[in-house]
Design a protein that fits this description.
This protein is α+β, with helices and mostly antiparallel strands and about 475 residues long. It has two domains: about 5-235 and about 455-469, 4-Layer Sandwich (Glutamine Phosphoribosylpyrophosphate, subunit 1, domain 1), CATH 3.60.20.10; about 255-430, Rossmann fold. Helix content is about 35%, strand content about 25%. It has 18 helices and 23 strands. A hairpin with a 2-residue loop joins strand 15 and strand 16 (about 255). Helix 5 crosses helix 6 (about 145-155) and helix 9 crosses helix 10 (about 290-300). The structure holds iron/sulfur cluster. Iron/sulfur cluster binds near residues 389 and 438.
Length: about 475
C-alpha cells in the first residue's frame, strides 16, 4: 500500500520559506518517499529544486539557500500516475513569463489520458508522464481572465482526486477536488499562511490550524489577503484509508485525531473478534494505536515484541517484489525474550497482497510465539483504488479471490479477524456519507474503469518527446 504524496505551500514574506517548506516536507515524508521538491518565487523569478530520494537526501544547505522568495510550494512523491523517475518529480512548472505556474499534487486524475490527448492536440507539450502536468496545462489552457477562473475551469473538467498547492509569481493557491478525497488544511504562521496535506506538518513548523480546506474549495493567498472560492460539489468521497493507515496518528482530519480513531478501531476489533491470549501487539507504527485500543478493551496486556528500524522507510518503498521481500527483514526485529511461549494478538492496519503478513507472523513464530491471532483494522480489501493510492490491481488483492479462512491459512495465523465496515465507521465517528470506502465495497464515488493503467501517459509522453525532436 503506497501513500499518494504530500503537498505543502507557504505565503510568508518575512520568513525563510524554503527552510520551512523543507521541515514541513520532512513531517509529511510518510506520504511519499520516492522524490521531493520545492519551488519558490520572489515575485519575479520562479525557481525549483527537486530530485529523487527522501527529503533529507534531496536538499542541502546550498540548495535551500538558493531557493529564495516569499512564497514556496513543496512536494513528496509516491508515484500513482507515471513512473518513479526524475522527469516526474514535483513541483511541476509549466508556462512562460507571467503565465508560469508551479503545481504540487496529491491524488489521481482518472480522465488524465483523455485530457492529455486533448491538450496535445491543441499543441501543449509534456515533459513528464504525470497527471500533475495535465492539471497544470489544463489551467493554462483556459481562456478565463484570472487565475481563479482558470483554476475553476480546470476543476470542472478534472475527474478524480486532487489536493493541490499552486504557485504563480505572486499568489499561493490551495485547491481540493469536489469529492474531497485527500486531506488539505490551511494554517497561520507569524502573519503568513500555510497549506498542508496534514495538520502534523503545521505543528512541526509552529503554525496553527485555521481550517480544513473544503471539498471544491480554492483558497487564494497574496498581498491582497486571503480569499475563498468554490465550485459546485455533489457526493463526498473522503478516503477512509487516511484514518486507517496513510495519515500520521498526530494529524487531525475532519476534526478527528487519527490516534483516537485508530485506538477505537482496535477496541472495535476486541469486541468483534475476542480471543484468549497473553499479549497484544500493534504492528509498528501504523497499528500501534489500534494495538493499544485492543489491549484496553480486551484487558489483555499490551507488549512490544517487534522492534521497528525506523530509518528503513515503509516496507513498500520499492515497487519491486524482491526488495519488498527483503524489506520486512530489514524493518522488524522480533524479541524472543518477550514472545517466547506467548499467545499473541497481532493487530495490523490491512492485508493487501498477503505477501508481508506471513513474513511478520513467521518472524514471531521463529521468536517463540506459541499462537498468533491476526486482527485487521479494516474490512477485507477487494477492490483497487483509483484516487491516489497505489495498492495493487484487483488480481493482486488477496481478499478479491480468497475467503477469510483461506487468507488465515495462507498467512499462517491461528485466527484472523477483520473489523466490519460498520465497526470502522463507528471508530472514525463521522457521518458515513462523507467517505469513500470503495476498496472494501466497490462503490466508487464516481465511475471508474477497473483496468486503468498508472503508466498510461508514459508511452504518450515518450511519443510526444520524439515528435518534438
Ligand atoms: S478506494 Fe479505498 S484507498 Fe482509494 S480513496 Fe477510496 S477508500 Fe481510499
Amino acid at each position: 500500500m503506497h501513500e499518494s504524496c504530500g503537498v505543502f505551500g507557504i505565503y510568508a514574506p518575512n520568513e525563510d520559506v524554503s527552510r520551512l517548506t523543507f521541515f514541513a516536507l520532512f513531517a509529511l515524508q510518510h506520504r511519499g518517499q520516492e522524490s521531493a521538491g520545492i519551488a519558490t518565487t520572489d515575485g519575479n523569478r520562479l525557481q525549483v529544486f527537486a530530485d529523487m530520494g527522501l527529503v533529507s537526501q534531496v536538499f542541502s544547505e546550498e540548495s535551500l539557500s538558493s531557493l529564495t522568495g516569499s512564497i514556496a510550494i513543496g512536494h513528496n512523491r509516491y508515484s500513482t500516475r507515471g513512473s518513479s523517475r526524475i522527469t516526474n518529480v514535483q513541483p511541476i512548472v509549466v508556462g512562460e513569463g507571467s503565465d508560469t505556474i508551479a503545481v504540487a499534487h496529491n491524488g489521481n486524475i482518472i480522465n488524465a489520458e483523455y485530457l492529455h490527448k486533448e491538450l496535445c492536440d491543441r499543441g501543449y507539450c509534456f515533459r513528464s508522464s504525470t497527471d500533475t502536468e495535465v492539471i497544470a496545462n489544463l489551467i493554462l489552457s483556459s481562456t478565463e481572465k484570472d487565475w481563479i477562473g482558470r483554476i475553476k475551469y480546470a476543476m470542472n473538467r478534472l475527474k478524480g482526486a486532487y489536493s493541490l498547492t499552486i504557485m504563480t509569481r505572486d499568489t499561493l493557491f490551495g485547491v481540493r477536488d469536489p469529492l474531497g478525497v485527500r486531506p488539505l488544511c490551511l494554517g497561520r504562521l507569524n502573519g503568513g499562511w500555510v497549506i498542508a496535506s496534514e495538520s502534523c506538518a503545521l505543528d512541526h513548523i509552529g503554525a496553527s490550524v485555521e481550517k480544513e480546506i473544503e471539498p471544491g474549495e480554492i483558497v487564494s493567498i497574496n498581498a491582497g489577503g486571503v480569499s475563498s472560492h468554490s465550485i459546485a460539489v455533489g457526493r463526498r468521497g473522503f478516503c477512509i484509508f487516511e484514518y486507517i493507515y496513510f495519515a500520521r496518528p498526530d494529524s487531525v482530519i475532519n476534526g478527528r485525531l487519527l490516534y483516537q480513531a485508530r485506538q477505537a478501531m482496535g477496541a472495535g476489533l476486541a469486541e468483534e473478534h475476542p480471543v484468549d491470549a497473553d499479549l497484544v501487539m500493534g504492528v509498528p507504527d501504523s497499528a500501534t494505536a489500534a494495538g493499544v485500543g485492543y489491549a484496553i478493551r480486551s484487558g489483555i496486556p499490551l507488549g512490544e515484541g517487534l522492534i521497528k528500524n525506523r530509518y528503513v522507510g515503509r516496507t513498500f518503498i520499492e515497487p519491486h517484489q524482491r526488495i519488498r521481500d527483503l524489506g520486512v527483514k530489514l524493518k522488524f526485529n522480533p524479541l524472543p525474550q518477550v514472545l517466547s511461549g506467548k499467545r499473541v494478538v497481532l493487530v495490523d492496519d490491512s492485508i493487501v497482497r498477503g505477501t508481508t503478513t506471513p513474513k511478520v507472523i513467521g518472524l514471531l513464530r521463529r521468536a517463540g510465539a506459541r499462537e498468533v491471532h491476526m486482527r485487521i483494522c479494516a474490512p477485507p480489501l477487494r477492490y483497487p483504488c483509483f484516487f491516489g493510492v497505489d495498492m495493487a490491481t484487483q488480481r493482486e488483492l488477496i481478499a478479491a479471490h480468497k475467503t477469510v479462512p483461506e487468507i488465515r491459512d495462507f498467512i499462517g495465523a491461528d485466527s484472523l479477524g477483520y473489523l466490519s465496515l460498520e465497526g470502522l465507521y463507528r471508530a472514525v465517528d463521522l457521518p458515513k456519507d462523507i467517505f469513500c470506502a470503495a476498496c472494501f465495497t466497490g462503490d466508487y464515488p464516481i465511475p471508474v474503469q477497473l483496468g486503468m493503467d498508472k503508466l498510461a501517459l508514459e508511452t504518450k509522453g515518450a511519443a510526444r518527446q520524439v515528435s518534438l525532436m
